[in-house]
Task: inverse folding
């Protein structure tokens, strides 16, 4: 079997899955058709790039996004050829940086993959995977919700974004009209009226997108955005692409040490844009993370991640202008604090808020939207096939709670701690091994590494094909 090229199945056809399929078929001649299981109509979109609201824009300039690190401005080149920017003049800033709608990037990925689909190198199976099980003779069975069953020697799990989970203080309200747990579900915000008073739980990128969507739909009521620290994602500066600072030479072995070095870099050159330092941390994140023991990784995630996320994941300038206008109008208030309790109140909600350093206060809202992000910590129970693999001991959650445990080559790690050579986990779901694997450039590089590992291109070529 090891002398034949393997049949490869990819579960999840968002950006990660589509990119791996593209790189596999770009690198190997004679490979059996790569099957991608994805219920959506098109590959390459997923949660991030399947958004239909044109206000949901990419948050870095198009010139820094690509399906391949070999051509880092491939998306921007496609935009110019496609004419998408002509149809969206607001996408381009005076300095020429382009921030098109996220759905446009999804179209770009689909367009790049289209020839592979037409040529039969990639097969799109529009079905949900219900079960994955090891075959006695090696490889895997894959059962889908339409009753079909297929075989593969190698499986790649690329289902990166599970549904959000409501905060514990809102759990008793799940199912009530007016509580939006998943703002990305189709029509999720339509029930919110123009004058409704809305609580948004979370103050990051998703909050900004929800505010932009509500604003465009004519909402003029009060919005309160709440998070533990009240930190709002920073605006992207398209002119700042440099990275400054060395954090990977003799990397700090503690979370406190990492934070100390970043603060020192900020103090050493206060006139330098802070984005350059965060760019350096992002690019060196793998080495920084690898130097930390698990207990320090947990500490870093618990105490530093909120500050990191609001600076690392920046808001598109067009969306940031909406936030600033709403704040100036007095219709958007950002608070630091927490929810202590909640209850149904007529057709709305009575929510007990405790501002940071203050006393609890019961506030009435017509609608509540949670934007706390995907529930990666409970990923193994989020889909039946993942739960089944976990029950079989084939994979396990990563010890930091960021997703599924893998080695640094992307192989799943079993409950016994063994590497599963023919089962890969790709994209943000595997970030527990890398620390930083949410931004598009990092996910692109990860897809390339996974494809290379599958095909045996790399240091230990022989052992990747079948195992």
Result:
């Amino acid at each position: 079997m090891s002398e034949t090229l393997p049949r490869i199945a990819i579960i999840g056809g968002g950006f990660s899955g589509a990119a791996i399929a593209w790189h596999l078929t770009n690198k190997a001649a004679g490979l059996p058709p790569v099957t991608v299981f994805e219920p959506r109509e098109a590959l390459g979109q997923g949660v991030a790039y399947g958004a239909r609201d044109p206000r949901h824009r990419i948050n870095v300039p198009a010139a820094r996004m690509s399906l391949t690190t070999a051509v880092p401005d491939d998306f921007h080149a496609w935009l110019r050829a496609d004419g998408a920017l002509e149809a969206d003049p607001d996408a381009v800033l005076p300095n020429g940086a382009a921030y098109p709608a996220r759905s446009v990037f999804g179209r770009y990925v689909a367009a790049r993959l289209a020839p592979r689909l037409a040529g039969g190198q990639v097969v799109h199976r529009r079905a949900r995977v219900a079960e994955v099980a090891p075959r006695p003779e090696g490889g895997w069975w894959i059962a889908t919700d339409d009753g079909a069953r297929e075989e593969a020697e190698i499986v790649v799990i690329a289902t990166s974004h599970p549904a959000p989970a409501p905060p514990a203080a809102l759990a008793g309200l799940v199912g009530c009209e007016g509580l939006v747990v998943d703002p990305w579900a189709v029509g999720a915000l339509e029930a919110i009226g123009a004058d409704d008073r809305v609580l948004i739980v979370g103050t990051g990128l998703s909050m900004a997108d929800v505010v932009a969507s509500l604003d465009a739909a004519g909402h003029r009521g009060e919005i309160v955005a709440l998070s533990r620290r009240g930190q709002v994602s920073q605006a992207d500066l398209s002119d700042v692409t440099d990275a400054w600072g060395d954090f990977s030479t003799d990397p700090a072995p503690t979370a406190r040490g990492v934070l100390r070095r970043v603060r020192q870099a900020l103090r050493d050159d206060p006139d330098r844009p802070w984005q350059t330092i965060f760019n350096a941390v992002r690019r060196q994140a793998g080495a920084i993370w690898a130097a930390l023991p698990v207990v320090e990784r947990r500490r870093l995630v618990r105490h530093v991640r909120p500050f990191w996320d609001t600076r690392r994941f920046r808001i598109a300038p067009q969306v940031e202008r909406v936030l600033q206008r709403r704040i100036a109008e007095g219709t958007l208030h950002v608070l630091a604090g927490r929810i202590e309790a909640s209850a149904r109140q007529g057709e709305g909600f009575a929510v007990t808020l405790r501002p940071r350093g203050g006393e609890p206060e019961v506030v009435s809202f017509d609608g509540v939207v949670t934007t706390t992000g995907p529930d990666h910590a409970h990923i193994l129970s989020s889909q039946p096939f993942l739960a089944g693999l976990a029950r079989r001991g084939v994979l396990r959650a990563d010890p930091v709670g960021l997703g599924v445990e893998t080695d640094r080559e992307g192989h799943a790690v079993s409950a016994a701690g063994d590497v599963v050579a023919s089962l890969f986990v790709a994209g943000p779901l595997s970030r527990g091994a890398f620390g930083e694997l949410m931004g598009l450039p990092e996910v692109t590089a990860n897809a390339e590494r996974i494809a290379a590992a599958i095909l045996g291109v790399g240091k230990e070529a022989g052992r990747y094909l079948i195992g």
